[in-house]
Specification:
Length: 286
């Protein structure tokens, strides 16, 4: 797995293939391992990259914290260091939000955006089922911090709850291995606290408002939403959110990929890869 110096740290990443850069961005609490069954199935004319976000996976730690702006800064620097331009971004969860953010700030260098189960827009606490709202609120308190930083089972519990299929012991080990100390789990806590509810955190809201404007007006940039059947009520992009995307995102194609939970690349890797290939082949200019 290659690694390069980025700012004051190191970013590790997977890569394969040659051609147009296709950059896969994971979310929380996953790593580039999320894409292991998808990248090998992408058509050969693309050079696939999948970084571990700063502080996650095998990447180094950040001296600037792990807020959205810090993640965006390290991603910017990593892409610049590799001299990646005219790229296609693929994002899941917070990785999709980072993809939208980068594209909105570099409109001349993005050829397309593919996303699934994205952190997409501001939300209200009252829009969540009460147990879910209470869980996210708890994570913003000192006891919630203790749960994430000191509970060794936090990642495993979260992953198993957000995957429809069964993760093997090998998969769980791959996801949990980087987080052996309380401080190593801080990026996971900061991502959980960054969820945009009722205007907070203001930093995240500002980024989302900017990329929402870009999503609505960037007719020149094709976008693909991979949607899933929500059999358990656990999807971030349910049918209501799909309808919002259809109304508020310019030049959007929507491709259903079957039943899944939030960490859909674990449930539907073959369908996701096939949908990406089909869409890419439809845009010969990409």
């Amino acid at each position: 797995m290659p690694a390069i110096s980025v700012l004051d740290s190191i970013i590790h990443y997977e890569e394969r293939g040659v051609g147009t850069p296709l950059v896969f961005l994971h979310g929380n609490p996953t790593t580039s391992y999320l894409w292991r069954n998808i990248m090998p199935a992408i058509d050969g004319q693309f050079h696939c990259y999948a970084p571990d976000l700063i502080g996650m996976g095998q990447s180094g730690s950040s001296s600037s914290g792990y807020g959205f702006s810090a993640h965006a800064c390290y991603l910017d620097a990593w892409l610049k260091t590799l001299n990646l331009q005219d790229i296609i971004l693929v994002g899941h969860d917070w990785g999709a939000a980072l993809a939208f953010d980068w594209a909105s700030r570099h409109p001349g260098h993005v050829k397309g955006v593919i996303f699934m189960e994205a952190v997409l827009k501001p939300m209200a606490w009252q829009s969540l089922p009460p147990p879910v709202a209470e869980r996210f609120k708890a994570l913003r308190t000192p006891p919630g911090e203790k749960i994430v930083l000191e509970d060794h089972d936090f990642i495993e519990k979260t992953l198993r709850a957000t995957v429809l299929s069964t993760l093997s012991d090998k998969d769980i080990q791959a996801y949990t291995a980087p987080y052996t100390t309380p401080e190593s789990r801080r990026p996971l806590l900061e991502w959980a606290r960054a969820m945009p509810f009722d205007g907070e955190p203001a930093e995240v809201l500002k980024h989302i408002q900017c990329f929402n404007q870009w999503l609505a007006n960037s007719e020149e940039t094709p976008k693909l939403l991979l949607s899933f059947e929500d059999a358990t009520g656990s999807l971030a992009i349910n049918q209501e959110a799909v309808a919002w995307c259809r109304q508020h995102i310019a030049n959007l194609t929507i491709t259903p990929c079957g039943p899944a939970k939030h960490n859909a690349p674990e449930d539907r890797p073959e369908e996701i890869a096939a949908a990406i290939n089909h869409w890419l082949n439809g845009y010969k200019s990409l």
